[in-house]
Amino acid sequence: MSDNVAGPPPDITTRQTRAEDAAVTTVTAHFKMVFICVTVITVLTLAASVYIGVAVAKPSDSAKSAMDTCSTLAKLGFGAIIGLLSGKAAQ
Known about the structure:
The chain is an all-alpha fold. It has helices at residues 10-22, 29-55, 61-90. It is built from 3 helices and no strands. The radius of gyration is 25 Å and the shape is rod-shaped.
């Protein structure tokens, strides 16, 4: 009679273990390096775009072009950050 009260069936325990294992996301050193590089480049290009927009009183055509390029790179970097995070979360 004590054999029937041994505990939950083994399949329930293995299901809980699989669910706990699936919730773990491993961040490797390579991912950290890529993420930090993308973040730094994004912040620098955004800062350059803001600096050109604020500090230059009468921007020339080349300054406007540089500001637009930096703004575009910042937008692309932001998209890359979102893509990296969502790709890591989807694993």
